[in-house]
Amino acid sequence: DAVDKGNYRHFMLKEIFEQPSVVAETLEGRIVDHQVYVETLGENATKIFEQVDALQIIACGTSYHAALVAKYWVEQYLKIPCLVEIASEYRYRDTAVIPNSLFITISQSGETADTLAALNKAKDEGYLASLTVCNSPASSMVRESDFTLLTRAGAEIGVASTKAFTAQLVSLLLLMVSIGKAKGMEKAVEQEIVDALEHLPHEIQKALDQAEAIDKLSEAFAEKQHTLFLGRGQQYPIAMEAALKLKEISYIHAEAYAAGELKHGPLALIDKEMPTVVVAPNDNLLEKLKSNVEEVRSRGGNLFVFADKSANIQDSNGITVFPVDSQYRITAPMVYTIPMQLLSYYVAVIKGTDVDQPRNLAKSVTVE
Ligand code: G6P
Fold first, then answer.
1. Which of 41, 248, 291, 322 shows the greatest Cβ crowding within 10 Å of its Cβ?
2. Which residues are marked as active site?
3. How confident is the model at residue 2 (pLDDT cuts 50, 70, 90)?
4. Beta carbons within 10 angstroms of residue 117's beta carbon
């Protein structure tokens, strides 16, 4: 039963553990014979995608962080601009639309007032079409958009979004490939992405198998007032999402920074009282990140580095390394999301907060 906690203590924990099956469900019928099956978005979608020269993505909260990851993917693989903006900003400002842009909303509920208002505003702004990446088939956003890509995460009860986020990332990757195929993406690139997606449920499961170790690690955070999260590249939005999760359910002040920006301010905050969590990329930015880790360590900071086994970062004074097994670079954001969700969950449990229903927050913000 979708609204039953089963053997889990909280809906949030249940939803975190549902992610391997949610990802598989979201991929179902959309990858056929190792190819992304674009037709699931409708024949007219292909015609629109052929013309697309830019994307404008609008969302709030966790959905906004999914959009930020998509920006890295789109600009790397499609080589077209991908603009991302928070709905409450977009709806109230004068915007300039790049010709032949596709307008995309991302929303778990499909009812967030600011995102809906941005969608309505966009209708008069000359976009090619609107598309929503949404988890609620019967929602206003689905009704109001030209195209829909459903995320199939199932009912999400915990206010802090978890499985809807990974389902959004998977959907955005499918969408990116669909647009790419309409614009002549190379087969080898599609294969590389499909390969990563097909292995993702298993990779997420391996990350979930580390839950006990994360539970232990969470003790180091429960008494702290602040936590800093660092990332680079496509893992920077994952650091932002990790900080949001920790704030939402444990009420610990958390901030995320792009690691290269450390020297422009947050270094001043470093001391042993503020843990720094690093979401390390398994790519060309790793070496850069290692020097950011050193910047924090040498100033007496206390680091928790989530890194690929092959990253070759060792436990040392001030550095606790947590190994994450992620073979595929493009889907690494989804894999690293799992320990971040578990960490905030276990910290909140120690603090005894109302995990599924955090104070002052709503699952769906349908009024301004
Ligand atoms: C609220 C929820 C968040 C969610 C955000 C956007 O703030 O508490 O978890 O990410 O709304 O919601 P949406 O339904 O549009 O994704």
1. 248
2. 363
3. low
4. 17
